[in-house]
Amino acid sequence: MIRIEGLTKSYGATQALRGVSFEVPRGQVVGFLGPNGAGKSTTMKILAGFVTPTSGTARINGIDVTVDPVASRRLIGYLPENNPLYEEMMVRDYLDFIAEVRGIPKARRAERIRNAVERCGLRAVLGKDIHQLSKGYRQRVGLAQAIVHDPDLLILDEPTTGLDPNQIVEIRSLIKELGKEKTVILSTHILSEVQSTCSRVLIISDGRLVADDAPERLGEGEGGTVTVVLASRTGATLRTEEVRSVLERVPGVTGVESAEGEGSGTLGFRLRYGAEDIRRALFDAAVRNELCLLEVKRQHVSLEETFRKLTGGEKRSGGEAPRAPQDDQKPPLAA
Asked: How far apart are CA 281 and CA 251, in angstroms?
């Protein structure tokens, strides 16, 4: 559905994208992550046809977005980060207007609007002006305008920004539901949102793609922690420093911290390790030193830790790039 090859974008002396390449097959929900100024929004605006790349190509279903932007936009539903809406219009009238601009035949317009309203839970507010709606309902209206023409690809830029926790859960559930039928590329700063909704993660940093994998596999090979609770096999009193010394000598352990035990006669520790799984060596060390492992709990490096490692320490000169003029205009309606 998406094929990007060697994409670059410069705004004067600022280089927002530096040779980004990736593909997204049909039916995949992709989380697009990166710190502020990394190039996420620029990439999504190029896909949506609102920014022209300096070099490289972006294709949607085989259509080059710069060669035939009208055809490519017909395949896209786009929800920009600032979700621009015509606030003086009623929800019903606004969606009818969007459907008309999108070129939906009049005979099919009511059905398409009804489907979008049902999917986005807008029936109760159809007769209200958009300026009367809560932030959560405005996001729902933004999603409804993005899907009213039944696009193959949804591009969602920070769809839960500014929502309260309940609204975030609602919009996240809606995105997961839409992802069963559509290809979705989702930009967000909320890593838990990616883990709960996306089957794949792309991480961009300083205009370059630095990671591409399933959320649960991104931290593999990067290590993590093993939390253990130990007791003496012989009933002897355990001495913290002696047990710590044993654990520090286990091959692959890079650090040992105290943790909670399980009452009298037990000690708890948290062991940090690198790429090597330390559990077999840990078991062998426990047997040699007359220790009983009451609990062993391993945790891989979290997505947050992986993200920080891949994007941390970057020095930026103030933001991603100058915003394109379209950001300050009314909703993107080109069909």
From this structure: 7
Give the position of tokens 């600032």: 82
Parts of the chain with a pLDDT under 50: 313-335
Task: Please report, for the domain that includes residue 104, its CATH number.
Answer: 3.40.50.300
For residue 218, the tally of other CB atoms under 10 A from its CB is: 25
For residue 329, the model assigns a pLDDT of 42
Domain shared by 229 and 204, yes or no: no
Q: Which helix (H) or strand (E) holds 45?
A: helix 40-48
Output phi, psi for 291, to 5 deg.
Answer: -110, 145
- Alpha-helix runs per DSSP H in 87-164: 91-101, 106-120, 135-147
SS3 332: coil
Instruction: Say if CB 267 and CB 248 are below 8 A apart.
Output: no
Counted domains in the chain: 2
pTM of the model: 0.72
Residue 234 — left, alpha, or beta (φ > 0 → left; ψ -120 to 50 → alpha)?
A: alpha
